[in-house]
Amino acid sequence: MTFRTWEECAEDRSDWRLTAIRETEEAMNTALAQKRARRRERQEQPQQSSHRLSTADSVHSCLGDIMSATAIMSENKLETAPFDPRFPNQNQAKYCYQSFVDYHRCQKLKGEEYEPCEYFKKVFTSICPNAWVEKWNDQLEAGTFPGTI
């Protein structure tokens, strides 16, 4: 049995690394050449001016829609819920559920017209998915809501 020296092992490793680097460079050069060829093909193809006009018209109409939507959103000022130290994590599902429960508890204790309860409603309407809120409201009406209110 013959043993190899550290130097011989290091030479083999460096040869392997050089081979891997060369293969990677060749693959990158091939990909770059293919990309340049595709770009040249696209530039050589005739461009259709009518397509440009229809695209420009559609962009203009989309901008109009966006501007009108922005005007509507500025009338209905949207705000995200403020930070609550009870829920420091990125996943806000617990904050959503707790705000829903707190809103209904507040309404039950203070009455429907009590203004501070609206804070909890704003929080859960901005954080919770609509499907969850609808499901919870249906459960409240049916008396099957899992939380205690």
UniProtKB/TrEMBL annotation:
One of its GO terms (cellular component) is respiratory chain complex IV. Residues 49-58 have a biased composition (Polar residues). Residues 29-58 are annotated as: Disordered. InterPro entries: COX6B-like (IPR048280), CX6/COA6-like_sf (IPR036549), Cyt_c_oxidase_su6B (IPR003213). Keywords: Disulfide bond, Mitochondrion. Its main location: mitochondrion. It is found in: Mitochondrion. This is Cytochrome c oxidase subunit 6B1. It comes from Petrolisthes manimaculis.
